[in-house]
Structure formats: structure tokens, C-alpha cells
Amino acid sequence: MSAALQATKTTKSRKHHVLPGFGLSLGFTIFWLSAVVLIPLTTLFFKTCQLGWPNFVKIVTDPEAIAAYKLSFGASFTAALINLFFGFLVAWVLGRYDFPFRKFFDSIVDLPFALPTAVAGISLAALYSDKGWIGHFLAPHNIKISYTPTGVYIALIFIGLPYVVRTIQPVLEDLEGQVEEAAESLGASRMQTFLRVLLPTLLPAAIAGFSLAFARALGEYGSVIFISNNLPFKGEIVPQLIVNELSNYDYPAATGLAVVMLVTSFVLLLLVNTIQRYASRHQEAR
Amino acid sequence: MAGAPKLNLKQRHTGRSVTKPIWVRIILTLIAIIFLVGFLLLPLLEVFAQAFAGGVATYFATFKDPFVLSAIRLTLLAAAIAVPLNVVFGVAAAWSISKFNFPGKNILITLIDIPFAVSPVIAGLVFLLLFGHQGVLGPWLEAHNWKIVFAPAGIVIATLFVTFPFVARELIPLMQSQGTDEEQAALMLGANGWQMFRRITVPNIKWGLIYGVILCNSRAMGEFGAVYVVSGSIQGVTNTMPLEIETRMENFDFTTAYTLATALAMLALITLIVKTIVEYRSTRLLAEATE
Amino acid sequence: MSIEIQGVSKHIGKFTALDNVDLTVNEGELVALLGPSGSGKTTLLRIIAGLETADQGSIVIDGEQASKRARDRNVGFVFQHYALFRHMSVFENIAFGLRVRPWATRPKNAKIREIVLSLLKLVQLEGLEKRYPSQLSGGQRQRVALARALAIEPKVLLLDEPFGALDARVRQELRRWLRRLHDDLHMTSVFVTHDQEEALEVADRIVVMNHGKIEQIGTPQEVYDHPANPFVYNFLGRVNLFHGRVHNGTVSMGEIKVDSPAPSDQDNVPVVGYVRPHDITIAKSRNGKATIEAKIQHINPVGPIVRVELERLDDRQPIAAEITRDQYYSDSYTVGDLVYVTPTNVGVFLDYDPVI
Q1: Tens digit of pLDDT for each residue in C163-181?
Q2: Percent of chain B whose pLDDT exceeds 70
Q3: How close is the nearest chain C Cα to the Cα of A13, in Å?
Q4: What angle do CA C168, C174, C178 make, to 5 degrees?
Q5: Subunits close to B (at least 3 CB pairs below 8 A)
Q6: Which residues of A touch B221 (CB under 8 A)?
Q7: How far, in Å, are B167, C198, C301 from residue C236 at the CA level?
Q8: Does residue C256 sit at the B interface (CB-CB below 8 Å)?
Q9: CB contact set of B85 (below 8 Å; sequence gap of 6+)
């Protein structure tokens, strides 16, 4: 048996590739991936295991943590929902209509990707502060956004928008106008065409875009801390709480919270990948 | 997970068949434009206005502040180390993934994406847990008198982590779409591996690579959360530009904060311009190729 | 320079791409590998080139065991989609093979220019050296790819579906041109095609492949007129099937009897006669010959010939015949006519389901 095993092994390792560099490039990829990403990340789980279950539960169910979860998940979800609506609209307008400076508006959709989060944070805080261009209209009506929990929502909408637009846009552009024409030629009204033909096709991309915006918002730190009041139980998001625990040198607490966030992110990542794989298979079938 | 803007190389067919009344189009377009301007553009304009509120002289005087200069230096240093390393990694990963078939390829692609899914704060925390005083390697590093956490080295490592997937993510789909025919042709004509790579592969991926580098660089210079955690915010030592912004905001030195913010915003604008150019060039090449 | 392929097998997963293939391509010959998709023809070509490796067997080029690496084999290869370097001009594409030579054997720039320009002349693309591949038509790209492959003065030239991506007219022209070019250069060449007409028109010899095996090797005339088996009959052109039995050296298919040795030692077994449409003669009268009666279903004049679709009166099976325009006009056939069919040149094989 061992001889047979040996034989298969040698033929496998002798497998000849025409293009050079497979072993070198794959080897380096795996080495570097392990060194920079995988091994450091396992440290987190290793440290969590050292906490022990009761400790872990106590950390992650602390009232301050629960308040932070509520704000983080609530604001992220709301922001992603708002982005889903406006992102869809923006993708539709950019993909379907022609108007002056369309290319320019298309480019600035990526601004939140390119802008450092700290810059986004202080820009938004300045804009919505009492003296800011928008804030000074709101101040007389006693509406405050900067340095309140409301600011968190604004920041999360800002950073999440391109994820929705850029996920929906290619699918929308792929949809041949002919599909709509066909639907209309079969007697469907414009609303029926939109609801029964376009929406179902765009649904996987919309869900994926929403989840991406949601996941990104959950992890966001830089832009939020500048515009929120960061007060425990009020304007404190989970990443801020983690940082606070760290500045108190309470590493176990930070680790426990990080694991909760990380697992959530991975579940979302898995969800998005599954949806996208399903959707791309669906589209090849067309 | 699409953590970075991908190049959009689709040729669009505008408005065909969408026979909506003109007023519906106008209203929808206006809402979209108002949203984009109000939500994305206005904050940026505000920060420029604030930065120049004290006059041009004050603005430029900021760049003589030694702490500001130190922050700029550290930012450039971190990018100068992280970006080339990620380029090497990105090209190697894209080469192996796009030109060869092997089991576990999809898993590898997902693993490369992990840093996009990890909150920057957690990325920083991970390196604290690894290299910090209470960390796994902490005692060993201290015994050798090596400082990583709360030192420039930590900034570089955290930056490396958060920018890890950028170049690979741009190159993998591009190289997959190009296939292996041209490389095989080069080999058949007698080229060696290096000649094939330099003369055929590199010119073909040039624009994707440029875009990947610029994105990677933009994130490297702009990263806040991850470096904030490992830096300890020591002015003149471990403060990068974004961290210096935070320190100045804490100290109510708004002008300096806004000025630094505009400098980073310029970087973002350059990134977007390069993206537009690369997209334009690639779509044109694509259109020519499919003629 | 000859190519000898000895006992080459290749498995891709559980699929057998090539099954113990032996083939010798003689010096100066132009050989077509013909077969349906999945027959292993492209795999065989790529193994000769060194772009794929065989599990077993060996490739001998010019009396020498072919080297392991593709780049050392000195084989010219024209890819199906040309694989021109899109970022290089036509000139640089053709010059590539010379420029990447080791310094010691690399020609001087002036020499490279001379070679490239003479190759451009050879492929009739003079004056296009500054163009980029995207600015060329399909036929021009094909010729650049050929010139590029010839620039390295290869021992043998391999072409993968050289005309596959071109439209019908360009394909016709390029085929004749390639044949003429080969007559001038006399370079040992192998090309892959799934188009029987192409193989018949261009090649000196045709290798018919199916399921990783060689079904027949022969000149175009041999494989067309004397197919070795039902597969080759089916694959090279249209064919009529006549079911019958063989007995004492005579095949009976209805009224018709053909002298034919039994295709095996067995006697009194069911057989099938294969007859090409142009080997079917039809007549308005019986003329005392043994014939099959049939009715004309459809008449379709195509260029110099007229295709006649018939239905046998006895078993209602269709028969396809091709007659000359002259005969069509002199006998003035119309749909519904009763005609008498006589097959000539019958290929007889044991009756089993033909493998396509």
C-alpha cells in the first residue's frame, strides 16, 4: 500500500505546468498570507480560548457592550437600508440616463472608498456642526447631528454608499434593454416590468450590496469617532468600546468583543459570497 | 467580498427602451445628484473651506510644524514599505491563481479577502495581542529589546495587514480574463520565464497594476483604526497623518487638523482621477479587442 | 524534419484524451489531424508542441527525443485565436522570437528588421508592420501569427484550428494560400481541424481521430474514397446507409446485390452498406438492372450539383443523392417522380450503431 501511495505521490509532484513559476508564486502567496493574515488572526482565537467560557460570556453580555451592540447593529442596519434605497436610485440614474457631468458624478460615488476615514469623519463633523454649512440651518430648529448618536448614522451612510451602487450597477448594465422591451411587448405595464422582471434579477446584487455596506459599517471606526459623542450607553459603537477597553489595558475584554464582531463579519462574508456565487450561476444560465 | 472599488469595464447602453416620461427621469436624476452632492461632495468642500478659513499663509505654515512633518514622514514610510510588499504578493497570488488550476483555489481567494472583512480596530488589536506587552511574542521581543507595538514598526505591520488584498484583488480577475495563450505563445517562441513575464505579462496587466497600487497606497496612507490601536499616538514618533488629525482635534487645533485632512483628500482625488483614466483606457482596449 | 509519435497516452482526470497513439509525420509533409471535438486532436498537437505532457509515450522530432520544455523544442505554433501580443505592433510581434534569444545568438537589429520585413512579404502583409493586432482583420491576424511562428525558423510548424475563427470566404482564400505557402516552404506541418472539407483540400495526409484514437491515416483520396470504418464514412461527408445481409461473399440489400467479402469471418450476418450521395445514380427507367424504387421528396439545386432527397418505397427510409445539373435538366425530374436508384461504390461494414 505504501508503495502505491509513493507512486501516486511522485506522479503528482512531477505534474508538469507549461507556464513557469507555479510553485514559487503559490508558495510565496501561502507563506505571506499566513504570516500577515492567518497566523496573527489565530492569535485572537487563541487568546479568547484562554479567557474561558464564563469570563467570555460575562464580557460579551456586559450592559455597556449590549448598548454598543444595539447602536452598532442598529445604526449599521439603518444606514445600509438607506444606502440600499439611494444606492439603487443612484445606480439606476447613472446606468440608464444621460445627463451633463454624468461621468463626474459616477466618479464621486467612489469618494468614500478613496477618502481616508479620518478625513471623512472630520469633514462630516464640520458640515453638520452648529457652524457647518448644513448644521447652521438645523441648529435653530434644535436639531443636532454632530457629536450626537445621530452622527453615527450619517457617517455610516457615507462610507457604505459605494458598496451598494457598485454591486448593483454592473448587473443593471448587464440587463439588456431587450428584456424590458420583451416584457413590454408582452403587455406588461412599466410598473409590472419593474416589479416582475427587473427587481427579481437585481435582488441578489441588492442583497449582496446591502450586506457589504452593513458589514463595512459594523467594523467602521475612523469616521464615526469624529462625529459621535462616543459616550458609553449613548454614542459608543463596538469598535470604540474595544478601543476604550484597550486604553484601560483590559485586553481580555477587547478580545472577547473582537471575536463577536469578527464572527459576525465572517458570517456576512460567507452570506455575500454564497449569494454572489448563486447569482453568477443564475446569470450564466441565461 | 468587494472591499475595494473594482474597475468597471462594461460598455453601457444608455436608456435604450426605457421609455419613461421625461419628468420621471428628471426628478430621479435630480434626487440622485442632490444626494451625491449633499452627502459626498459637500463634506469635502466644507473641510477645504475650513482649512483655508485662516488664509493661505496659515494653511501653508502648517506644513512647517515639526510634528506635522514627522507625521507625513511616517505616513510615507509606512506606504513605501507596505505598497511594494503588497505588489509582490499581489502579482504572485494573481499569477498562481489566474494562470493555474489547483484544488482549494476558491478557498485561497476567500482567505486573501479576509482583511477586508476585519474591522480595522480588530486588525490593530490582533497585533497588540501578538507583539504587545501582554502578547504572545511580547516577552521575547522585550528580551531582545525590539519594540513593535507603540513604535513605527507596528504602524508598518498594521498597514500591511489592512492593505493586504488590494493589488491581488485588482489583478486576479484581470489576469483570469486574459488567459494564458499569450504567455504560451511567448514560450513557444523561445522566451524564458522572466522574458515572458516582463515582456508579455507585465505590459498586459500594467493598468490594473497601476490602479491596484494607487488604491493600496491610498488606503495605506489613510488608514486610521488599525494604526490608532498599535500606535499609542505619540506625536513626532508614532503619529501618521490621520492620527495627527485626531490628536489635533483632541487639542482643539482645528486648522491644522483640517489642513492635514485636505492633504489626504487630495490623495483621494488623485486616486479617483487615476481610476477614471485606467477605466477609460481599459474599456477602450476592450472595445478594440472585441471589434 | 520528421515527427515520430510513439505510444502516446494522456488522461485528464477519468477522461482518456489520447489512447496509445502512434503516428509518423514525414519530412516536408502537411498533415491534418481531423476529428470531432473531444477526439484528442488538439491535445495531440499540444503534446507535440510541449504545451502539454503525455502520461506515456514519446515524441521524436528530427530523430531526437523532444526536449521537455516547450521553449527548447524549436517548434512553430499558431494558436487557434492567434495569441498575438496585443500591446506590440505587428513588427514587434514577429520580431519577438528573435529578440528573446540569448545574447550570443541574437541577430543584430538590422538583421531582425530584414527578417521581419521578408516574412511580412511572405505572408503578404507588407506595409502593415506598424499596426497593432486590434487594427487587423481576422485573416491578417492569422497571417501575422504564422509569420511570428516562422520567424524562429522552427523545425516543424503546428497550427491549431488555423481557420476556425474566420468567416467562410476568408477561410477559403486562406486555405489555398496556406497550401501554396507550404508547397514553397516544404516545412513539416501539422494542423488540427474539425472541418473535413478543409482537411481534404489542404492536407497531404489526413489523420482521422475519434475518442483519443486514430481511426485512419491516408491521403485525402484514400480516406474519402475508402474509409476504413463507419466512423470515417460518417465523419467525412454525407452518407446513405443500406441495411442488408452478407452471404457467400455477396451482400444483399433489398434487390441489390454487391459482391463483397464479408467484413469479418462470419457469414450470414447483418451488415450496412455505406454509399455517398454522389455514388447514387438515379434513373427514370429500370434498364434491367437491380435497383431500389424510390420517390422524389425534394429537389435542391446547389451550385453545379442538384441534391435530390428520395424516399424508398419498400421501407420508407430516406436516400440522399447528388446528380449533375445536366442530368437534372435532361431527365427533367420533379417532386413525386418514381425513380430507380442504384448505389455504386458501396462500403460494407458489420451492422452496429455507427459511432459518431
Answers
A1: 887 888 888 888 888 899 8
A2: 91
A3: 14
A4: 145
A5: A, C
A6: 116
A7: 52, 11, 21
A8: no
A9: B160
What is the percent of chain B with per-residue pLDDT over 90, rounded to a whole number? 40
Q: What is the pLDDT of residue A9?
A: 33
CA A90 – CA C340 distance, rounded (Å): 74
pLDDT at B246 > cutoff 60? yes
Specify whether domain A54-285 bears CATH 3.30.200.20: no
Interface residue of A16, A17, A22 to substitute, partner C, most C CBs within 10 Å: A16
CA A244, distance to chain mean position in Å, is 23
Q: What are the domain boundaries of chain A?
A: 54-285
pTM of the predicted model as reported, rounded to 2 decimal places: 0.83
Query: Of all residues in chain C, what percent carry a pLDDT higher than 70?
Result: 97
Full strand arrangement of the beta sheet holding C188-193: C75-78, C156-160, C188-193, C30-34, C205-210, C213-218
Section C114-139 average pLDDT: 92
Which residue type occupies A50?
Answer: Q
Cβ atoms A124, B40 nearer than 8 A: no
Q: How far is CA C42 from CA B190, C24, C47, C162, in A?
A: 21, 17, 9, 12
Are C24 and C12 a contacting pair, CB within 8 Å?
no
Residues B98-103 have a mean pLDDT of: 90
Picking from B182, B190, B285, the nearest residue to C83 by CB comes out as: B182
Question: b/e for C174-205, b at 16 or more Cβ within 10 A?
Answer: bbebbeebbeeeebbbbbbbbbbebbbebbbb
CB C275 within 8 A of CB C244: no
Residue C356 — pLDDT band, cuts 50, 70, 90?
very low
What's residue B5's pLDDT? 56
**Rounded CA gap, C315 and B233, in Å?**
95
* Residue A13 confidence class, pLDDT cut points 50, 70, 90: very low
Given an 8 Å threshold on Cβ–Cβ distance, is B192 in contact with C101? no
The CA radius of gyration of chain B, in Å to the nearest whole number, is 23
What pLDDT is attached to residue C78? 93
Q: Which cell numbers in the block locate residue B114?
A: 479576509
Q: Could you give the CA distance from residue C276 to residue B202 in angstroms, rounded to a whole number? A: 54
Compute the Cα dihedral for A97, A102, A106, A109 and give only its sign.
negative
